[in-house]
Amino acid sequence: MSGLTAERAIPDRPGRAENYLTAETGLASWLLTTDHKRIGLLYMAAITVFFFLGGAAAFLLRLELFTPEGDLLSADSYNRAFTFHGVVMVWFFLIPSIPNILGNFMLPLMIGAKDLAFPRLNLISWYIFVAAGLIAVYTLVSGGVDTGWTFYTPLTTAFSNGNVLAAAAAVFVAGFSTIATAVNFIATVHLLRAPGLTWFRLPLFVWAIYATSIVMVLATPVLAMVLLLISAERAFGIPIFDPLRGGDPILFQHLFWFYSHPAVYIMILPSFGVISEVVTCYARRRVFGYSFMVYALLWIALVGFLVWGHHMFVSGQSLFANLVFSFLSFVVAVPSAIKVFNWTATLYRGQIVFDAPMIYALGFIGLFTIGGLTGLFLASVPVDIHVTDTYFVVAHFHYIMVGGAVSALYGGLSYWWPKITGRMYPEAWARFAAVMMFFGFGFTFFPMFIMGFLGMPRRYHVYPQEFQVWHVLASGGALILAVAYLLPMGYLAWSLIWGRRAIANPWGATGLEWQTSSPPPTENFDTPPVVVQGPYNYHPEHEGPPAMDREPHSPQGGQPV
Fold it and tell me: What domains are defined for the chain?
């Protein structure tokens, strides 16, 4: 099976006796490594810890909302719990997850490079990320923050009794890691592509990481500046946002959302890349409209900077500004729709294999489509005014940021797990977890659309009796969703010891990462690859589906970990 291939593909045989997992052993060799693959796994370990912490806070919120009375958490404790949940899940899970785990590991492999452009900077960025996470955890153990993850003034500058400065410092420090990683990715794509790998031969995952990195570099400094302004006003009394002393509280919203709406695309653009890789592999067809998919990624990255005002329709901004931001919010939906249509067209008449990565991908498409369509409601000024600060908004952004991004993360991990570890996982359990995640997410968050439209405000731990049935349904769905999130961690860990050895290309996929051994050697390739044709060179009309890695095979089918 050829596609984005080297001039001479490496057969399905054992790689070198030494790979990146066995090259050096010992904790010090991992903590001081500059190998992008090991650093990707270090990010996986750290981000998984933060995912558990943020998820535990969310589960606590759902337990509280099981009954209308505030019988588990006080109002103040509830505020601190959802603030911690938001801060950790946004800046320490959703934003770094796919870029820092899958991007770190796969990007050099997918472009035929030995490593990222700046290996030491890559390791430093991990240490910065961990340091920022520890500061965030400190805010929890020292009492928490009660402002919400958006840090709105004047709560953060005058009224909050929480550890606002520590929380702001955690996010501020994490921004350095984000920018360092993004600069590294941009330089790598520009400078280290294999011979013959022109821009329009790049896999869509590489394009997605590249577009995301541009957004990271341009948007993150704005967040850093606004956090510094909050800290300056809170710590030193400088009147920046205080209207009684000549400040402007709405200025904070403009600055914050100028970063935070592009941040949504930092979370979702890498997911687009993952889904594109998975769909084309398991449909055995070229990606429909490859160039349109590339331009759609870049269009989202650009126009995403122009729609921040749709978060502020009720802030008192002018009707003309509301009209402009509403129009641009509809415009930015067009490239997202292009991607959904192109994935659907890729699936059409494909020889679809319903393995776990494909089920995750199909779940992503469904959840992202619901999230995108409900986003059009919020882009309409009258509807947005009606549902502002209700559970409708909570449901919408969770469908995009959690349902979409987490489905793509699990789908990408399932897809590249044999390449990362050299081991196969139990496919039946993986399919079960993928289906459970889709339905668990629907049971958890779809009732929130109904609650929000009926007027249930978000961030309330006490609510009217008539909303209890919807909250009970959502809390039950959260339990299913928690199992669906935990289950893959169990069977993937099981596979590290008892999983069958993986051949170099167990899925019959195209791409340079599949032309080296599983797991890859320390320097990724035995010989430098030379690309001779474009990506996704599948021909289902002339070929049958590939022989996938289903049955046990001889030890020559892969190398031991």
Answer: 34-242+249-512 (1.20.210.10)
